[in-house]
Amino acid sequence: MTPWEIKGHEFINCNCSFGCPCQFNALPTHGHCQAIGVVVIERGFHGDVRLDGLTIGLAARWPGPIHEGKGHIQPVVDERADARQRDALLRIMSGLDTDPGATFFAVFAATYEKVYDPLFVPITAEIDVDARRGRVKAGEVFSMVGTPILNPVTGAEHRARIDLPNGFEYEIAEIGSGTSQSHGHVALSLNETYGQFAQLHMNNHGLISQRKAA
């Protein structure tokens, strides 16, 4: 197993209501799952290959709950990555070189029925986790906009967080609203649904905790 580690942040938009039942071991809001997302790697490596400053993304759908499988995914990788970096990133995204079930990459990989050939495109991602805001464009594959949830009476920004001390993706996620569109093999249209903003720090054994578990 080649050791790896990444530290960065993510913006994920799925088709569920604010709160995302998956985070609570419940069934999806509409009975099926759709998601578009990016991970911006601030610092990272896979073996002797540096991954600093690169971004990866995906558009994925499952006909039912994720754990029932039959998912389709379109992986997307920053076009700035060279050949070795591309291979390293795709191995991480595929759950390879990772303890079984240790990261969300590995968990999701076990549920895919179809993995489309990766697309290497320019990715721009402006994400502010604490402000629950994001704007992403991955070539012509997908685009995303994230905003805070607004109080329906006062219009004020509403802050909510999900705390998962033993999670396989993040420890704390800020929850907002996401609107995204994807094209191609996994064409999705999400409008003001669950938006997840989180700091990530993980390696091939799982999350690297920044605090003591609750």
How would you describe this structure to a colleague?
- With about 210 residues, the protein is mostly beta strands.
- It has one domain.
- The protein has 2 helices and 16 strands.
- The strands form 2 sheets. Strands 1, 2, 3, 4, 5, 6, 7, 8, 9, 10, 13, 14, 15 and 16 form a 14-stranded mixed beta sheet that branches. It has a two-stranded antiparallel sheet with strand order 11-12.
- A hairpin with a 3-residue loop joins β9 and β10 (about 140-145).
- The longest helix has 11 residues, at about 85-95.
- The protein is globular.
- The mean pLDDT is about 95.
Task: Provide a concise account of the structure shown.
The chain contains 2 helices and 16 strands. The protein is mainly beta.
Task: Give keywords.
214 residues; mainly beta; 14-stranded mixed beta sheet; two-stranded antiparallel sheet; 8% helix
